[in-house]
Design brief:
elongated; mainly alpha; 2 strands
Length: 147
């Protein structure tokens, strides 16, 4: 597009915006009119700073990308792989929050394989809590004589 076309486009959009602004002011009041005026002034500002051309280039690039997405099987394989990766991340987060897919803290038993150590057994043997915050609370309770 040449400069005259950009000027005509900006002028047309500004006039349409001005008409909308006047109508909004008359029907819905000052706040709606000010909002319309603000939006209307963005068009000549975009024309004066040449960002109107930039916006059309962005729209063209997004359109080309979308066309490539629709008609390319290789892109669809990438979309499926991305979706599968995102689903795996979500499921692993759910499993971790419910502590389903994690290994238990184990300690070798005296006579045969590892034995799971529970929180009550850890306290009975005087071992510190698993969490630092819980360790602080346990230390406070011990100082007060509560165990």
């Amino acid at each position: 597009m040449d400069d005259a076309a950009w000027t005509a486009l900006a002028l047309a959009l500004t006039i349409v915006g001005g008409l909308y602004t006047w109508r909004a002011y008359r029907r819905r009041g000052l706040a709606a009119g000010m909002r319309g005026a603000g939006l209307t002034l963005l068009v000549p500002a975009a024309w004066l700073t040449d960002t109107l051309r930039m916006f059309t280039r962005i729209v063209d690039a997004v359109g080309d990308w979308a066309l490539g997405l629709v008609f390319s099987p290789l892109v669809w394989v990438g979309v499926v792989l991305g979706g599968l990766g995102a689903a795996l991340l979500v499921v692993s987060g759910i499993l971790t929050s419910r502590q389903l897919g994690t290994t238990a803290r184990t300690r070798p038993a005296a006579a045969g394989g590892p034995k799971e150590v529970g929180p009550a057994e850890r306290r009975a043997k005087g071992e510190p809590a698993i969490d630092d915050d819980l360790a602080d609370i346990e230390a406070l309770l011990r100082r007060r004589g509560i165990s």
